[in-house]
Amino acid sequence: MTTTSDAIRIDRGQGGEVDVVGPLDDLAGRLLRRAGFLFEPTLRGHWVRLPFDMGRDWENERATWAAQMLAAARYPVCLDPALDTHRTPHATPSGPVRSPAVTVQTPSPRKPRR
Q1: How many other β-carbons are positioned within 10 Å of the β-carbon of residue 111?
Q2: Cα–Cα distance between 112 and 114 in angstroms, integer?
Q3: What is the rounded CA–CA span in Å between residue 7 and residue 105?
Q4: Cα 102 to the chain's mean position, in Å?
């Protein structure tokens, strides 16, 4: 079982930018690039982020799409709930839906077969 520290985190930073933190291999990098993320070189590696000033709706859609692609490729992903465009508001987990109970009735008398 993976912990959240091993997961790829997609969230909105303090400055409003959407960035990615976590262990990234070649496939994860390709998926993030496909979703529109940029890889900016830094002294510690790469800063993975979406372009600035594209609008919050666009950023949320791209972040959600990236999380879906990573999850489909079996990567552990933590997406900031504020970025998730496919969540249902006020969703509560529910148990399995069961059919109503059926009462047992006595069988009707049958005529003997010939």
Answers
A1: 5
A2: 6
A3: 55
A4: 39
pTM above 0.90?
no
Q: Are 70 and 8 in contact, with CB atoms under 8 Å apart? A: yes
Are 8 and 78 within 8 A, CB to CB? yes
Find all residues with CB under 8 Å of 86, minimum gap 6, and list them.
Answer: 64, 68
List helix spans (H) across 1-114.
26-34, 56-72
- Whether residue 10 contacts residue 67, with contact meaning beta carbons closer than 8 Å, is answered with yes
What is the end-to-end Cα distance of the chain in Å, rounded? 65
d(CA 66, CA 35): 5
Q: Are 59 and 51 in contact (CB under 8 A)?
A: no
Left if phi > 0, otherwise alpha if psi is -120 to 50, otherwise beta: which for 3? Answer: beta
Q: For 42-96, what is each residue's pLDDT tens digit? A: 898 889 999 988 889 999 999 999 999 999 999 999 999 989 888 744 444 444 5
d(CA 28, CA 39): 12
